Amino acid sequence: MIDIMLSTFVQLLTSGYAMWMLMLGTCIGIFFGAVPGLGGRLAIAVTIPFVFGQPVIAGAVFLLSMHAVTGTAGQISSILFGVPGTGDDAATIVDGYPMAKKGEAGVALGASLMASGIGGIIGAVVLAVLIPVIEPIVLKFSPAEFFFLALLGITFVAFVSGSAIFKGLVVGLYGMMLAFVGMDPQTGIARYSDEFLFLWDGMDLITAVLALFAVPEMIHLGVKGGSISAVSKEMAQTGVRAQLKGCAITFRHWWLVLRCSAIGAFIGILPGLGGSAAAWICYGHAVQSSKNPETFGKGDVRGVVAPESATNSKEGGSLLPTLFFGVPGSSGMAILLGAWLILGIQPGPMMLVQELDLVWILIWALVISNIAAVVILLFITRWVAMLTFLRGGILIPVVLIITVLGTLLAKGQWENLVLLGILSVVGYGLLKYDWPRPPFAIGIVLGKIAEESLHKAWALWRWDFFLRPLSLILISLIVITIAYAVYRGFIDNRKRSQPNVSI
Amino acid sequence: MSPSDGRDRTETTIVQALLHGRTLFSMLMFSIFAVMVYVAWGYSWPANFLPFVIGFPGMALSLLQITIDIKDFMSAKGDIDPRTDFEKYMAELSEHTGGLELDYAKEKVETLVEDHSLVAKSRNRQELILFGYFFFLLAMVLFFGFWIGAPIFLFLFLRYYAKESLKTSLMITGGVWVSMYFVLVILLSQVIWEGHITKYIIDTYLSD
Known about the structure:
The complex is a heterodimer. Chain A is mainly alpha-helical.
């Protein structure tokens, strides 16, 4: 184990092209994280087409490092302007923005950067430590268990959907239905595609993801106004010295950082729970475990450190189900998983046997990109903060063009432009009427995996595959998850129907 | 008020609820599942197995969502929340922070509410305009190709939607076009869709 750990580290560091892609991914991730309204999912969606034809390691490292650092950059606008760069950074506003208003923006940014970096590294360490632990479990899984695991992944979606549980499940199932478009592997029937040859290979994942995430976000940005330039640019001025002071303060709260990073990593392992949940849970943990909770919400640095360490450590944790079970831990991971499949990486238990080198390279990429992002941002935060002032009117058409370009580059078929237009309307409807979209990405990726596993399991055991011990455990988990989700839905509905109490 | 008046009013409210955007969208989701299940009926086993396994629960859950939407509309809680935006935002933050007092939030939210009310008036119009621009981009690329369609869209969007100056619009359009051309064509040697009309013109008049 130590051998492979060290050799992959050296392999990554000495591979000039992979390191260049890692640094490029980190810089692009910083850009997408810093501009409010963009974020990690969009970053992967629009850059997938550009990694086509790249060497597998370089492409995989590029995408992972880009995704891993969006959260680190996202906190800049949360702290300076009270506007979260990504949804995961909303918790940072609660104490980060008051700190900025008190003139401690640099300290808050430094603490947040260091906490993010440490969190990202601890997330990678948790993943590395868990590899030998889960190896025997993963290798016991057969196609039958993978089928039920895919269904379990979809039912976990109910948890990401807040009070909109039914909506979340419907969107997840909608994603799965779209995964069935194309040639059926068993019968050769062209399902839902008939004479449309471009659909015979299945619906293009990139087009579907761009249509559901990128286009609606841009339309929404245009509709809501999209500019936060009313905030004074003077607030964006922060010194390196103040940030270094913030970095040092993080180490004063090392025990909190460690705890929150561990919580974040374990939340990441649970499919369906996103960074937002990790951030808020750790914020709550910081408040509850504090001797003086009354200072939170008024500019307490612990309120910055706790959520930031959790959001970044979550990425390491969510790689575990994504890489070894093929079940994405979050919507971002679902898109990443789709991108890796396109690159030729086949996530699943065989990764532990045949592709352990790649797994370790990805772990190192996670560590290096987190360190690189902290170092880069420490010196360029004041300029990166200016990205927040980028007007929506300029951003929208450029992102729409990149979206169209991504669709064209994905498979080189013009028909996908028509598909992009149709699915974008559905995507915007989902956004407008508060239907959660992350389940879609999970559904469309898991749909294919579920079907392949089902056919294999059927060929091996027929109906008996339902009765295997692990299958029965997973079926029970699915039933419990759905029952709990429905119960929670009814409780939330009852709460909503009660008269509102003014606060 | 006679009982028939009350019944008429209820029927009118149900019709209004059914025609409300939120309910219509749930119906769209239901119809997507219904159509896909109907089409799957024509496939032999096992090609239709998973579309049924996923499609029927999808239909059932969509129907459930439609009833929730109608119920919300009828009880006027779906769209009309008596709280101000500020109160809603504070309640949301309070849920997460265990009821902490957030002094700074008032000022922040007042700014957001003000901004929101300005854009809310023209929300639907804005959506149509933006989708119009997006479909214009798709059509331009489809017929004239990426290298002609994209810059025309970008310039028009910047000039007429974003109200940028002629100079800024031209500079951004040129900058984006040149950088994309450099990366995609010169560095990566990518061939990108040239458009039906452009292809026809090239094939008919310009090829040897």
